[in-house]
Amino acid sequence: MLNLILVRLKSQLLKVKSVLNIDETWIKVRIKLLNDGRKLVHYYKKYIWALVNKLENITYFFYDNEEDDRPVAAVLLKLSWEAYKSDGYMVYKHLAEVNPQCEFILCWAHVRNKFAMTFETNKDATAEWFVLKIGELYKIEAECILKRLKPHEIKKQRCQDDVTRILTSIYEKAVKLLNNKRKHYGEMIRKSLSYMVNGWDELLNYRKDGRYTIDNMLVERAIRPFTVHRKNSLFYSSEEGVETALAFFTLIETCKNAGPMPVTISQLQLGF
User: Fold this and answer.
1) Domain ranges of the chain
2) For the segment 13-38, what is each residue's pLDDT rounded down to a tens digit?
3) Domain boundaries 2-104+217-270, CATH class
4) Which of 6, 31, 47, 254 could lock 64 by a disulfide, CB 3.0 to 4.6 Å apart?
């Protein structure tokens, strides 16, 4: 029964033209045997990938055993997603380069957090300005949620002149600061500016479709219970144990998406 549910969830998660949020985190796993059968008992750092399909209300966790020297995301991306949202990790940028048909949307929350951390650390007024400006974008997103706008209405709202003015002011100020050779800026603010400017095109992609989210918080919230669990468990004694744990995290997080009656998830997914 459990396997049937997981197969159905995975099929719906990765169907053609899916819009996904994706994130990754690490785990320590005890590897007992090498691929050639030789005995080996060591703990290795491996990765898991969490994917959220907001439209289907599905969250799914994948274990990356790196058997074929490719991240699991590289394999999954060949399944004709329409778009994916993530942070600026180089793996995601590479996936966008080799899969140009798939829209890569960069997370605004990561940009804002970099400036917020810079302000909290150095009390940098420039960083505070960017935090407040990005906050204006989030205010518009909040209004869309409160009004319960449909995707085409959200897209229209994001393409209004007021949003364009906010984005233009953010970009122009960032470029001006980076090009100013006469003034010295701290390392944190410079890194924050560079991260934003280098990913600017991907940051703007959220305006192209009302189904896209402005940030990656959907999947980051979903993956947080696993990271808390990791602090308590410390490691996994086998790869089979990882797969079992991820199956339960997949079901639990998907049930959360389903609403107040998660007990019906098997009926909903299997059509009973």
Assistant:
1) 2-104+217-270, 108-208
2) 888 888 999 998 888 888 776 665 56
3) alpha beta
4) 47
